[in-house]
Write a structure and sequence with these properties.
Elements (H helix, E strand, L loop, with lengths): L6 E6 L4 E6 L10 E7 L6 E6 L3 E5 L4 H9 L6 E5 L7 E4 L10 E11 L3 E4 L2
Length: about 120
């Protein structure tokens, strides 16, 4: 392998999900930076709500954490809706969030809304 080192640490607990990646050839992570995404199923949620009018992709996910990974892996994703009552197309990725358009956050039974925050820190 080339001199490029890829470091991926996934730390999964019952209440959270954090990722730290550092790589010289990752397009989404600049060299010398660490990318972190915190995700907590029980804390970072607006239950029975969804952001409407901003869905750019619908997918099927086995769990909310899988939907979060889909959002994390798409740089356009700023928030997500996870629809518990649907077996298909239950993960909706949004190109906006509640702060950008508060009026778009609407009551939807069986759906949970999650903001997605990307944090980059200098590693050296």
């Amino acid at each position: 392998m080339e001199s490029t080192f890829v470091f991926l640490v996934a730390y999964i607990l019952f209440r959270g999900f954090m990722i730290c990646m550092s790589s010289q050839n990752q397009q989404s992570v600049p060299p010398g930076f660490c990318y972190r995404a915190k995700f907590s199923v029980n804390e970072d949620v607006v239950s029975n709500h969804a952001l409407e009018g901003h869905v750019f992709k619908r997918s099927t996910a086995d769990a909310v954490t899988q939907c979060h990974v889909m959002c994390r892996d798409d740089c356009r994703c700023l928030s997500m809706n996870y629809i518990h009552i649907n077996e298909q197309d239950n993960c909706e990725l949004n190109d906006a969030n509640e702060q950008m358009n508060p009026a778009a956050l609407k009551y939807r039974f069986g759906a949970d809304y999650y903001d997605f925050v990307r944090e980059f820190t200098k590693t050296y």
